[in-house]
Design goal:
Length: 486
């Protein structure tokens, strides 16, 4: 709702014990909840896009589905869900239940790939930066008359007309919304304490956002096009786009004297929820916020003891976005595959051979493509080569790249383990064979000792005598594997 006389932008962060396990539904047509972790299990609910759920258990049961012909990889997870905003099942009373969903369509609410770095500066530095910035205004067309809104949305929104108690008669209660994709969402009336506030509420046709008033004068925001609500979108009055519209600051008044802020990112022409704004600590009040470029900004904060003052004291800051969020299904699939691989602690030995390793649950063609194994083995998919691969383990050399050890069978008589380093978005950086075995002639084998700062590879050849050749490599900070001399 409206803030005090001084125009303040307020920021508030709240935490709880399961905050890191909160996920958003990322399927635009909604996500089915099943009684058991199987596509053949009974459907018990369907949760709309943008609704928040709690993940309570990983099953490690993998699943790949195809969305418009493209593979989406993930696993079954157990969640806790409710019907606070929309009815997700036949129950009309408020519920909180558990079930299983495919996590390929879940998005972490607190984005671990989003980091905001801030630095305190002095007033002179702040004014110097701001003086070079163009003046920007951010306004969106707003329709503030409820009757006009009803006429405009007559094919999209059904307003409730029948009430069981005359004390609750009103003309601004929403019964259902029909989204752009044709899905009809039924609004839960058990929790429907929001309505139209004359002079404040309104519909923003360019954004498809309907702004209503909730309890404690809070903002209740609904996207009529997608069904999203406060979890992922905000009050248009708080939207501040970056210079080229790559990102935008987003927020809504929570009813607790604060505005909860998040960032959105433009992907394929649509703004998508990216994550909370710096959830690692609390910032209580923004006095101003301006973008310098698409990833940098400046802002001011009011001294807490000066909130009610006409001329409050300010502190000045610069900030920057470090965004490593996957933007393609390929990158998302890679992270899913990596997350299913068990971590092995360093240092470790790799002596993988036919005697100590056996596996028959090999990666399918889609997983091989995601891991880009055809770049390592150019003949991987060619007829007659019969290559098959499976993960062995994952190593943690750095937080800046992934290190996976993949075992590849070359027909029935050869196998090798390959240490492969990938960027955080799944781009192949470098690789090295760290173990090898063959049973056709049994003359050669490769073994390795892997330490945090060194890779020691021993190539063994049996002829008349056992011969060993030892080479040493370093894992560089950028993921490159470079030879070193001992």
């Amino acid at each position: 709702m409206k803030l005090p006389n001084i125009l303040l932008l307020l920021l508030f962060f709240s935490f709880n014990s399961y905050a890191q396990e909160q996920y958003l539904i990322n399927a635009e047509s909604g996500l089915n909840v099943r009684e058991k972790p199987s596509v053949n299990a009974s459907k018990i609910a369907k949760i709309p896009y943008g609704v928040l759920v709690e993940k309570i258990e990983d099953t490690a049961i993998p699943l790949t589905i195809y969305d418009n012909g493209k593979p989406v990889m993930g696993k079954w997870v157990k969640i806790k869900y409710d019907n606070y905003l929309y009815l997700v099942s036949k129950e009309k009373e408020q519920i909180q239940k558990e079930g299983y969903v495919f996590d390929g369509y879940l998005k972490q609410y607190n984005n671990p790939n989003l980091k905001i770095v801030t630095k305190k500066i002095n007033e002179l530095e702040y004014k110097k930066i701001v003086s070079k910035l163009p003046k920007a205004t951010h306004t969106y067309k707003k329709i503030g008359n409820l009757d006009s809104i009803k006429t405009l949305l007559k094919d999209k929104v059904i307003w409730k007309t029948i009430f069981y108690d005359d004390h609750y008669l009103r003309d601004d209660a929403i019964e259902s919304i029909t989204l752009d994709n044709g899905q009809k969402l039924i609004v839960s009336q058990e929790s429907n304490d929001y309505g139209f506030s004359k002079g404040w509420s309104g519909y923003y046709p360019d954004l498809g956002i309907l702004l209503l008033e909730g309890g404690h004068s809070s903002d209740m925001v609904l996207n009529i096009k997608t069904g999203e609500s406060n979890n992922t979108i905000g009050n248009p009055e708080h939207l501040i786009p970056s210079p080229t519209n790559k990102y935008r600051l987003n927020g809504y008044y929570s009813g607790q004297e604060c505005v909860i802020y998040s960032l959105q990112k433009k992907i394929d022409g649509k703004f998508i929820y990216l994550g909370k704004v710096n959830p690692d600590y609390d910032i209580c009040i923004f006095n101003s916020f301006q973008w310098v470029n698409d990833t940098q900004f400046v802002y001011t904060l009011i001294f807490p003891e000066d909130y009610a003052e006409k001329n409050p004291r300010l502190t000045y800051y610069t900030g920057g976005i470090e965004d490593k969020t996957p933007t393609t299904q390929q990158a998302s699939n890679f992270k899913t595959i990596a997350s299913l691989i068990k971590i092995r602690t360093l240092p470790t030995l790799d002596t993988t051979n036919f005697d100590n390793f056996s596996q028959d649950n090999f990666y399918n063609k889609e997983a091989v493509a995601v891991l880009q194994l055809q770049k390592i083995f150019p003949n991987y998919f060619k007829e007659g080569y019969d290559n098959k691969s499976i993960a062995s383990y994952r190593l943690e050399f750095s937080k800046d790249f992934y290190s996976l050890v993949i075992i590849t069978y070359k027909g029935d008589h050869e196998m090798e383990s390959t240490l492969i380093n990938y960027s955080l978005n799944g781009k192949l950086i470098d690789y090295k064979t760290i173990s090898y075995d063959e049973i056709a002639e049994g003359w050669s084998r490769t073994e390795s000792k892997i330490e945090r700062d060194k890779l020691t590879i021993t190539d063994i050849l049996w002829t008349d005598d056992k011969q060993e050749e030892i080479t040493y490599f370093k894992i560089a900070s950028n993921g490159k594997i470079t030879p070193i001399k001992e």
